[in-house]
Hints:
Helices cover 35% and strands 30% of the residues.
Amino acid sequence: MSVQVHESDICIVGNGAVGKAAALGFAQAGLRVNLLCAPASVLVPAMVSASMSATILASADWDVRVYALNHVAHGLLSSLKVWDALDLSRVAPVTAMQVQGGGADAGKLGFDAYGAHATELAWIVEDKNLNQALDTAMRFAQNLTLVQGRAQQLSALPDGAQIRLEDGSLLRAALVVGADGAQSWVRGACDIGLDYRSYHQQGVVTNFECEKPHHGVAQQWFVEDQGIIALLPLPGNRVSLVWSAPDVLAQTILAEPLSALVARLMPYCADSLGQLTPVLPEAIRAFPLSLMRPHSMIASRVALVGDAAHVVHPLAGHGMNLGFADVADLLRIMKDREAYRDCGEARLLERYKRARKEEVMLMQLTTDGLSRLFASDLAPVRLIRDLGLNLLDRLPVIKGKLIAHAMGKSSM
């Protein structure tokens, strides 16, 4: 019995949003790409048109998993012809952000698009909307082949890498891109070490209708013993809750009716949003929060992207943005490579590692530091923290640099 061999320039392992974006980018750059996904993964059928796809999504329920995509993510998705494939009626621009402590006299910090010389700070996009748009774009991509199967072994070859699947078939490529999430098989197969720390929190997500218009403002409250509460704007008078709650509180919230969750939120948002009402049909989810720092984003013939390369606290909403920035940098490096280099050469992978090091480290330190700072219930720490927020709110130059970084821009 002959062994089936899939040859390509680049093999992407993992078909989440970051993996799909990487596959599209490399294919559109003229490289041969194989995208390996689990057998259960199903893309939108090829016979469904883009207009029909949008209709299917528009009639669906609102997804409780959303992303705050910054300008880097927007730029990448636009270059891949994915942004216009989104159902834009379900995308909400963020025009301002308000950050404050949980108490009435707590520090406050505000950002707005006007002050950042932009029309939007970010865009709130549902997971379902994003992945469906990526699936639509992938149907029209040449040089891109979807391979279903389960990876069993990863080996380095003299001129590339090889993945053996459980059914015995082989995928051979100059470069393997691990885009297979926080529990990355590729990372493990490369024996890349990992620093892991649980935050002992869960991200509780659900959607609400609000009585008053949100005006595109994202709100965030740091509450010492209850975690971090964020209400993000959705189209119309809807908001998406992302509550980074301590494990015990998260389990209590999940066990209670959503009316009890509304009662917990009202002291924070009643003035700005009025009464909250769960979006029907009611849905709520939770996922554990942790910090993961792999010891390297590269190995021989391998590059990691997205959660396979780094997992940060979601308080700044930048997990997906970091992943898309990984893809953007890796694409740029491969497009700019010397003609005599193949995609998996060590020199190119070192360029990728250097390109991502500063941003990833800064985001890890920032999100981890803020989560620790705002979790403290020590009175002196709370005082310094609140004074710091109020002072920063009065320093436009520093505020501008912070918001530019959050938007994915080096300067404004």
